[in-house]
Amino acid sequence: MKIDKVLNEIDEMGDAHAGSSAETPIRKDAFEVSDTDKIALIRENVEHIMQTLGLDLSDDSLKGTPQRVAKMFVNEIFSGLDPKRKPKASVFDNKYKYGEMLVEKNITVYSTCEHHLLPIVGKAHVAYISKGTVVGLSKMNRIVDYYAKRPQVQERMTMQIVQELQKVLGTDDVACVVDAKHLCVNSRGIRDIESSTVTSEFGGAFKQKEVRREFLDYIKLDTTF
Ligand SMILES: Nc1nc2c(ncn2[C@@H]2O[C@H](COP(=O)(O)OP(=O)(O)OP(=O)(O)O)[C@@H](O)[C@H]2O)c(=O)[nH]1
Ligand SMILES: [Zn+2]
Fold first, then answer.
1. pLDDT per residue as tens digits for the range 109-149
2. Residue 147 near residue 83 (C-beta atoms within 8 A)
3. Could you say which residues bind Zn(2+) here (predicted)?
């Protein structure tokens, strides 16, 4: 497929990384390579890394690793680099005229730190106030997961989640808080197992102190059922 056509399609899909400030740095030619070719290329490179480390790739337990890692990169942990995999967010009219904020909290986040390619594990909390449109609850979890499935910095991921929901819902009144542990901080380097990172993005009405407070109070609710 021609690169111009692919880029047009991405633009039409309204992807957050099509010119926004929270853009993931993806090369323009990234879409010229098929997933199958990407897996084959990554497999070769992982093989190379393992060989360089001195590992014996004829060992039963190791021989499948390069292919396994390549498949995992393309189809799982970095699958959110492919705009075709962006979840379709079904929206509905707010017929019941629900006028308060809706909070989807404790959304599990599994992402990957783009500096070390180590896991980021945590929770995202998302809220919005409807301007006439509501979104299926699970779509918020799916949007979080889509942006998490990229090499990420937490600040950018938080902004991307908010910008996407603003687009889907047609309102600025969207907020997101992420609290996550970075294994690059917890398990290596400074090796501080206790620390976690909190990031937030407050759009529209959520910039007001009392609206923001209400959202943060809901997050603190003990949800033990
Ligand atoms: N702002 C931000 N920084 C991150 C994130 N994930 C990892 N980092 C940091 O990125 C920085 C990379 O710093 P470098 O000094 O280049 O890497 P390094 O030598 O491995 O650093 P140390 O982790 O301190 O050993 C580290 O301080 C990481 O903690 C993130 O989501 N946001
Ligand atoms: Zn890191």
1. 999 999 999 999 999 999 999 999 999 999 999 999 999 99
2. no
3. 113, 116, 184
ipTM of the complex: 0.94
- Amino acid at residue number 168: V
Among candidate residues 196, 199, 171, 169, the one with its CA nearest the CA of residue 22:
199
Buried b (16+ CB within 10 A) or exposed e, 86-104: bbebebeeeeeeeeebebb
Q: Is 114 in the pocket of ligand 1 (CB under 6 A)?
A: no
pLDDT band at residue 30, thresholds of 50, 70 and 90?
A: confident
Q: Which of 24, 153, 184 to mutate to test the pocket of ligand 1 (most atoms within 8 A of CB)?
A: 184
Q: Give the integer Cα–Cα distance in Å for 122 and 22.
A: 20
Where along the chain do its domains lie?
Answer: 3-83, 91-220
Would the pTM of this model clear 0.80, i.e. be above it? yes
CB 129 within 8 A of CB 220: no
Please state which of the four CATH numbers 3.40.190.10, 3.90.420.10, 3.40.50.1010, 3.30.1130.10 is assigned to the domain occupying 91-220.
3.30.1130.10
* 57-88 pLDDT per residue, tens: 999 999 999 999 999 999 999 999 999 999 99
Look up the CATH architecture of domain 3-83: Orthogonal Bundle (1.10)
Out of 110, 112, 115, give the residue to mutate to test ligand 1, the one with the largest number of ligand atoms within 8 Å of its CB: 115
Report the distance separating Cα 93 and Cα 188, nearest Å.
Answer: 48
